[in-house]
Amino acid sequence: LTGAQDGSVRMFEWTRPQQLVCFQQAGNARVTRMYFNAQGNKCGVADGEGFLSIWQVNQTTSNPKPYLSWQCHSKTTSDFAFITSSSLIATSGQSNDNRNVCLWDTLVSSGNSLIHAFTCHDHGATVLQYAPKHQLLISGGRKGYICIFDIRQRQILFTFQAHESAVKALALDPSEDYFVTGSAE
Fold first, then answer.
1. What are the Cα distances from residue 162, in Å, to 19, 31, 114, 131?
2. How far apart are the first and last CA of the chain?
3. Sequential DSSP letters for 140-168
4. Residue 109 has what DSSP assignment?
5. What is the chain's alpha carbon radius of gyration, rounded to the nearest angstrom?
6. Domain coordinates of the chain in residue numbers?
């Protein structure tokens, strides 16, 4: 799956030089993050205008429409994570009201899909990592802060400053004993 500054999203197969599907044509907001769900049957695309769109991967048409598309953040959606069986999604981004990390339920109507919004990260959340064994979300912000959330209780557990500049990357070890942060500096 590829995404570009021009907003185009294309899917390729290893053995074929031509794209299989063009999910989104050029002329849209820049792509900020893309993932397949754990089952490999859906893909999600976050963009610079705050939207998250989700497609079924097994499309037969050349330009399929997303089955879900909604504005998660008022300025930008920088990252997201499929949680559980892909019906629950966490997003990070920047919103005017500082609700910069959100939980969404894809099985309800778009007007009611926001389950919880965390007010955190002045100037926006840049990255997000899900720890399924512990049911935690880890987010990094533009000011170098890390927040750890318990998604079962929907509360922030810890906040600390890890860097002097924006957190650009988060990685979690497979046993979920440690996580690593990377920053703009």
1. 40, 26, 29, 19
2. 29
3. EETTSEEEEEETTTTEEEEEEE--SS-EE
4. -
5. 16
6. 2-183
Determine how many CB atoms are found less than 10 A away from the CB of residue 47. 26
How many angstroms separate the CA atoms of 157 and 148, rounded? Answer: 6
Tracing tokens 């998604």 back to the chain, one arrives at 151
Amino acid at 175: S
Quickly name the fold that domain 2-183 has: Methylamine Dehydrogenase; Chain H (2.130.10)
Query: pLDDT tens-digit profile of 11-63?
Result: 998 998 898 889 999 988 999 999 999 899 999 999 999 999 999 998 777 77
CA atoms 84, 109, 40, 126: torsion sign: negative
| DSSP-derived 3-state class of residue 8 | coil
Using one digit for the tens of pLDDT, what is the confidence trace for 59-104? 777 778 998 899 999 999 999 999 977 789 999 999 999 999 999 9
pTM, full prediction = 0.92
Q: CA torsion 145→120→149→153, rounded to 10°?
A: 160
Cα–Cα distance list, 65 to 2, 10, 68, 83, 132 (Å): 17, 13, 9, 23, 30
Cα(177)–Cα(179) distance, integer angstroms: 7
